[in-house]
Amino acid sequence: MLSERRLQVLRAIVQDYVGTEEPVGSKALTERHNLGVSPATVRNDMAALEDEGFIAQPHTSAGRIPTDKGYRLFVDKLAGVKPMTAPERRAIQNFLEGAVDLDDVVARTVRLLAQLTRQVAVVQYPSLTRSTVRHVELLSLAPARLMLVLITDTGRVEQRMIDCPAPFGEASLADLRARLNSRVAGRRFTDVPSLVEDLAEPFEAEDRGTVSTVLSTLLETLVEENEERLMIGGTANLTRFGHDFPLVIRPVLEALEEQVVLLKLLGEAKDPGVTVRIGHENAHEGLNSTSVVSVGYGSGGEAVAKLGVVGPTRMDYPGTMGAVRAVARYVGQILAES
Amino acid sequence: MLSERRLQVLRAIVQDYVGTEEPVGSKALTERHNLGVSPATVRNDMAALEDEGFIAQPHTSAGRIPTDKGYRLFVDKLAGVKPMTAPERRAIQNFLEGAVDLDDVVARTVRLLAQLTRQVAVVQYPSLTRSTVRHVELLSLAPARLMLVLITDTGRVEQRMIDCPAPFGEASLADLRARLNSRVAGRRFTDVPSLVEDLAEPFEAEDRGTVSTVLSTLLETLVEENEERLMIGGTANLTRFGHDFPLVIRPVLEALEEQVVLLKLLGEAKDPGVTVRIGHENAHEGLNSTSVVSVGYGSGGEAVAKLGVVGPTRMDYPGTMGAVRAVARYVGQILAES
DNA sequence: CCTGGCACTCACGGCTCGCGAGTGCCAGAC
DNA sequence: GTCTGGCACTCGCGAGCCGTGAGTGCCAGG
């Protein structure tokens, strides 16, 4: 087990390195933090920390930098979440308040997060499967062509075109619309499949084909892969990555273009609170030199989606975690109001 | 006026520089292109081209690189548009064919363009103001809350929440819906304002407030700034910019995040064919070292939106122009089918 | 267990220098 | 007049060569 002082040394190393971007040596450490011991003692502690794999030297006779494992310890044990100041909170609230619809809320949230953290922001749209149905609408666009519109309690709207196997009368349409809504309105999306199972039965034989097409389209919309959307922003902040970034930035940009990768990334975080995945903890190899800070947000007590930021492992964890948490909280409020 | 040979020299310089990314000298030129003259002659031609501002030297005793003006001449006079090969055309068609809705078409187009050109792709959604109305739908979500849904002939769907000044009955709603659609369905969006002017008149006094709220929301949706959407992709290709890119890439990423900037960029191109804006021809200063190749696309003869790519001024213009033109053509076809 | 001292390592920046690609100019040939 | 070969000149680039200094590990003594 590491002594208290060694933990302090690690904390000091992380803080200094995050601030300066340069390997930190024993002498500089004792000067900037009053640890009450001499550089030589710190050197011994550093050697121990290095043995345990918390810090490393880029090359012999250089200072130390934290490893992923070091950051992990720092985040778990040595640092809290830095709360936002009152003015910052007000600014967040003001910024989000003017949003006119869900797209706008998400877009504003992305911008806000990117600005606050000076990193790449990722915001997932409220998940369908974790929302409840506000309304299902069916529009007839042409004799054998329908549009299905889903509206959730979080303001999300999904639409789908449907080509009917047979023409579908206005009366049948109204009937189906009414039956659908009475079954599913106000219910959770996860319950929808079982709620609509037998909905085709009361219909005339000629209409059944269309009804079941509609139902299967509805169910398709709820399939995991299709139903998730997200928005990213602040990619310009990638340029703050470091000097050697041509090699680092490329895979990151590529990963950010793969929505699937990002969704997995956010999805993996199961904690109720802020989750931090550091460097190699990220499954995707392009993101091995980045950390992902994410958290769920939702209108009520329950999370309906996630948001977070992607940045260099050398980041200000307490501050970033604070910003992410605060933004999530306010987005939740905004959604609850609408 | 420049002699024929000098133009050939310029063409050769552009081609070589685009290929190698390195300043090209007189000797290398005569070796790679059989111009039929000696390096010394080429040197004289180069001196003349430099005097005219078509090429420049990064430093004394280095080869020449084309200036923006040189690229401009190259694009206008010296190079055509390189048509896609038959297999390429087939690949484009296959790639776009599987799309299920407009979002999907746009997303696929972005990916495709980015892959074909190996540059950053930008695709604008079909403009509302240049489309015709397929259907307008009004849904009642709550007693005093409506949702307005606009559907265009290109498959684009916009929705807007409306808070009514007074509760609005189901009957009035059906009435308004029917009147609205009979007026505007099949008409161009630009005509909508004049078509709905007097639509509130037939309604009872108590409903008029709501009706005019609905109408003004409808008109707001058509306001230039709100109605334009776009999607970008292939930002990872920015890493192919050059060696010095830390400084170049940053403003480009920033510009790409400003949708307004991009819309302006695409909007400026008025040509019916492929438009190329080179380096400093772009108004936005962050894009001074990039070229933008764009073209309109549409389901019929008329352009409903634009698409294009953003890349380094040192790009393969004929190839890029060919790819952009071909993709636009096929996207137009896909939209016409749906 | 901490500390001061000491010898050692090694990245970094500045320096020189030779190489070679590229240039401009000029005198002569066609 | 135009092209060509020749020639002297420029200058960026990379290699090699230090000196400097921050940083280290180890050890003997408090």
From TrEMBL, chains A, B:
Organism superkingdom: Bacteria
Keyword list, A-Z: Repressor, Stress response, Transcription, Transcription regulation
Keyword Ribosomal protein: no
Domain called Heat-inducible transcription repressor HrcA C-terminal: residue spans: 103-321
Keyword Ribonucleoprotein: no
NCBIfam families attached to this UniProt entry: hrcA
Family statement drawn from the similarity comment of this UniProt entry: Belongs to the HrcA family.
Function: Negative regulator of class I heat shock genes (grpE-dnaK-dnaJ and groELS operons). Prevents heat-shock induction of these operons.
Protein name (database record): Heat-inducible transcription repressor HrcA
Species per Swiss-Prot/TrEMBL record: Streptomyces ardesiacus
Taxonomic placement: Bacteria, Bacillati, Actinomycetota, Actinomycetes, Kitasatosporales
